[in-house]
């Protein structure tokens, strides 16, 4: 084909982007670009032939997957792979509504197609979650979104995932990793612990339960008596869970008992968080706060902007009402939402074959050598290994905060209660 190399690269890119845009991944699902492919670096565990999901060298990450939050999930997956030292050793376990969830169009098959299209080499499985397993236990919350049955799917991880999976990192869909998730995976869980998570003991723990709870002589402080430590708030959007101990202790049933009591007497106002606190507060193995810089979505009512709180950053979490993709689309982003946008694979409907073909070659990054990236030695600042697709979607630079693994970015802010479900 004639023309200069830049022109040929640009034309080739247009073909790929058009293919992604018009690809049939379900009418109700958003469209996403294909992410760069990352390879394991030196020192990663060798795969055990034929072991599949039971390979002992795998890092297991569990997330929910649905049409409404799919844009957040895609960005989260991309960030986890990009910053992982051994991306090919990560196995994703997705929990999706068996009936497609509210609004339809997000069935398991469609979601599988969408994920595979953006991450062709991703190792993952999708587990259908039946809403009727929990619907009768859900109580009204301060925000309707917190009442969705899929929010409670994490209670059933140990029932859904293969028995050979020893532990899993559970992550909400509104997170971004800016560090190697294997570091979180290697969190030590002593024999007495089932769950590890960042704790926030400065938060007013009593506010998570009603006056009815604290005034009841059979409840209140008595519930937490005899635990390893004083009960503290922890956010359930980032947890390391020992699945074997969970099964032995029948913790799903312990959580359900509290949800049943909530139906009888109102003992809390939030959604799926309080039952976890009732079962695990005071027994959680503490994890460094860097692994859940949460509350970036504001509170559960206004969803206003919030800065990072004090300390290093390994994972950012937009818990709360305000989601970065919604604020970006509304033209009212918070400062940190621009960082999230750097991982956004979403292709707006306005980007079509016509608009893409009009881009000059100078506006397109050369595609040669960008299809695969090796997560070799992570030294100092992470490489800027952005995707050509992201550039077309309006993203200029991936590592906009310039996070490095050895010298994490620190942002000083007031130490405040970031309590959100």
Task: Give a written overview of the molecule.
With 421 residues, the chain is of the alpha/beta class. It has a single domain (20-38, 56-392), classed as Alpha-Beta Complex (Spore Coat Polysaccharide Biosynthesis Protein SpsA, Chain A), CATH 3.90.550.10. 26% of the residues lie in helices and 14% in strands. It has helices at residues 5-22, 70-82, 108-118, 157-160, 182-185, 211-215, 221-224, 243-249, 251-264, 273-280, 324-329, 337-341, 353-357, 388-392; strands at residues 31-32, 37-40, 59-65, 90-97, 123-129, 167-171, 175-177, 195-197, 199-200, 233-234, 238-242, 285-286, 315-317, 346-347, 372-375. The protein has a 7-stranded mixed beta sheet. A two-stranded antiparallel sheet has the order 1-14. It has a two-stranded parallel ribbon with strand order 2-15. Strand 4 (90-97), helix 3 (108-118) and strand 5 (123-129) form a beta-alpha-beta unit. Helix 9 (251-264) packs across helix 10. It is globular, with a radius of gyration of 22 Å. The relative contact order is 0.17. Residues 4-26, 352-372 and 375-420 have low confidence and may be disordered. InterPro entries: Glyco_trans_8, Glycosyltrans_8_dom-fam, Nucleotide-diphossugar_trans.
List the topology elements.
Layout: H1 5-22, E1 31-32, E2 37-40, E3 59-65, H2 70-82, E4 90-97, H3 108-118, E5 123-129, H4 157-160, E6 167-171, E7 175-177, H5 182-185, E8 195-197, E9 199-200, H6 211-215, H7 221-224, E10 233-234, E11 238-242, H8 243-249, H9 251-264, H10 273-280, E12 285-286, E13 315-317, H11 324-329, H12 337-341, E14 346-347, H13 353-357, E15 372-375, H14 388-392
Parallel strand pairs: 2-15, 3-4, 3-6, 4-5, 8-12
Antiparallel strand pairs: 1-14, 6-11, 7-13, 8-11, 9-10
Protein name: Hexosyltransferase
InterPro entries: Glyco_trans_8, Glycosyltrans_8_dom-fam, Nucleotide-diphossugar_trans
Organism: Oryza meridionalis
């Amino acid at each position: 084909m004639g023309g200069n190399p830049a022109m040929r690269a640009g034309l080739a890119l247009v073909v790929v982007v058009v293919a992604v845009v018009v690809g049939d991944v379900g009418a109700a699902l958003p469209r996403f670009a294909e992410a760069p492919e990352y390879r394991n670096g030196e020192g990663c565990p060798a795969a055990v032939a034929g072991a599949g999901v039971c390979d002992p060298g795998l890092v297991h990450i569990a997330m929910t997957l649905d049409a409404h939050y799919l844009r957040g999930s895609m960005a989260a997956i991309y960030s986890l792979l990009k910053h992982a030292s051994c991306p090919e050793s990560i196995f994703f376990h997705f929990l999706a509504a068996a009936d497609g969830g509210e609004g339809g169009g997000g069935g398991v098959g469609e979601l599988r197609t969408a994920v595979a299209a953006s991450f062709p080499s991703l190792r993952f499985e999708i587990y259908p979650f039946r809403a009727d397993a929990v619907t009768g236990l859900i109580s009204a919350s301060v925000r309707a979104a917190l009442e969705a049955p899929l929010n409670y799917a994490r209670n059933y991880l140990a029932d859904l995932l293969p028995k050979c999976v020893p532990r899993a990192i559970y992550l909400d869909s509104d997170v971004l990793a800016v560090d190697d998730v294997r570091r979180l995976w290697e969190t030590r869980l002593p024999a007495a612990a089932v769950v590890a998570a960042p704790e926030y003991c400065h938060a007013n723990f009593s506010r998570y339960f009603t006056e009815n709870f604290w005034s009841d002589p059979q409840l209140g402080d008595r519930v937490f008596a005899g635990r390893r430590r004083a009960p503290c708030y922890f956010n359930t959007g980032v947890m390391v869970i020992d699945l074997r101990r969970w099964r032995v202790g029948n913790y799903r049933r312990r959580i359900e008992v509290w949800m049943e009591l909530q139906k009888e007497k109102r003992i809390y106002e939030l959604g799926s968080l309080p039952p976890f606190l009732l079962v695990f507060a005071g027994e959680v193995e503490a994890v460094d706060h860097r692994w859940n810089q949460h509350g970036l979505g504001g509170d559960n009512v206004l969803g206003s902007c919030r800065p990072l709180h004090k300390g290093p950053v390994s994972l950012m979490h937009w818990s709360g009402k305000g989601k970065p993709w919604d604020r970006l689309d509304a033209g009212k982003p918070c400062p940190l939402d621009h960082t999230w946008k750097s991982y956004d694979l979403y292709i707006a409907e306005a980007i079509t074959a016509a608009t893409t073909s009009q881009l000059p070659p100078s506006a397109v990054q050369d595609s040669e050598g960008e299809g695969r990236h090796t997560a070799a030695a992570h030294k100092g600042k992470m490489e800027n290994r952005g995707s050509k697709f992201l550039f077309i979607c309006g993203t200029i630079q991936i590592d906009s905060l310039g996070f490095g693994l050895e010298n994490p970015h620190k942002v000083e802010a007031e130490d405040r209660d970031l309590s959100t479900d």
